[in-house]
Amino acid sequence: MRKLFGHLAGALLALVLTSGLAAAQSKVTIAVGGGACLCYLPTVLAKQLGEYEKAGLAVELVDLKGGSDALKAVLGGSADVVSGYFDHCVNLAAKRQELQAFVVYDRYPGLVLVVSPKHTSEINSIKDLAGKKVGVSAPGSSTDFFLKYLLKKNGLDPTSASVISVGLGATAVAAMEQGQIDAAVMLDPSVTVLQGSHADLKILSDTRTQHDTLAVFGGEYPGGALYSTAAWVKSHEKEAQALTNAILATLAWIHSHSPDDIMAKMPEEMVGKNKELYLAALKNTIPMYSETGKMDPKGADAVLAVFSEGSPEVAKANIDVSKTYTNRLVEQAKKTTGTGAK
User: Fold this and answer.
1) Cβ contact 116:132 at 8 Å
2) pLDDT in tens, 239-280
3) 3-state secondary structure of 57
4) How many whole angstroms separate alpha carbon 55 and alpha carbon 53?
5) Eight-state DSSP code of residue 242
6) What's the whole-model pTM score?
7) Contact in structure between 187 and 147 (CB atoms under 8 Å)
8) What are the pLDDT digits (tens) for 38-83?
9) Measured between alpha carbons, how far is 33 from 260 in angstroms, rounded to an integer?
10) Sign of the four-CA dihedral 159, 190, 61, 338
11) Residue 77: phi, psi to the nearest 5?
């Protein structure tokens, strides 16, 4: 009988402790602009490593087709935070909507403009895309912005190509292989997957490395970050700091482990059947991940310059780009946990 009571007491205590832990955790919903894309890997990996829980958060990741859909989820109130590209914060500032990035995990955007294997012979330059069908993750997403910037940079009307929504993963690869589109703005692992089947894959523009990013934009250009409305960041200081701590711990883990270790932690459905190609893509992508979590002010200025060139609305808006991000939470994390900016 004593043993029975002992077991019951132990179970009751465990239940109370578990309930207390759950009650102590703050719930946060993060809308991800395409979870299978390696550009968003730190957000997914943080959950796989249990970093959100360690920081006192119960995080739900909602996987959406593209960054514009993730942004709509936050603006519509169905999610708290976007895991997406920082350039949305700048673009929306022109519409007087205050968004603020608070931890950056991609120091390069990783966007790649690729020609469909079925249309290699007819497309040799960006100028050849006029009148063609070009795939993007979703209209209004960073892939779409990148395409319009490149078209204008090459002397074309930004709307001269027809934009087709194809997502970022298997649907984009299938659309390219079947020739449903003439070209696409893609990210890894999709680019490497295509290269695995088509060794002569034609790439018109690549921003997966520092060298290529500088060649395209003339400076570093931040990609993925966690951001939300400035009002949410201000009113949820504890949650925003916890998210920052979790991402910084994850970035430190990434840069202290091998690509094989990282792949082993990722969900199987995201890795896919061809682990060798995923691993190759991951090796290409790791240099893209930030080591500090901080926004480089020059990078933010570059984003504003790109959008000012391609969008009259942004150019005329007199945007104070320093309001579209904060490094305060990253700096605070370094003081309290020892992680963060080097």
Assistant:
1) no
2) 999 999 999 999 999 999 999 999 999 999 999 889 999 999
3) strand
4) 5
5) H
6) 0.85
7) no
8) 999 999 999 999 999 999 999 999 999 888 899 999 999 999 999 9
9) 24
10) negative
11) 90, 5
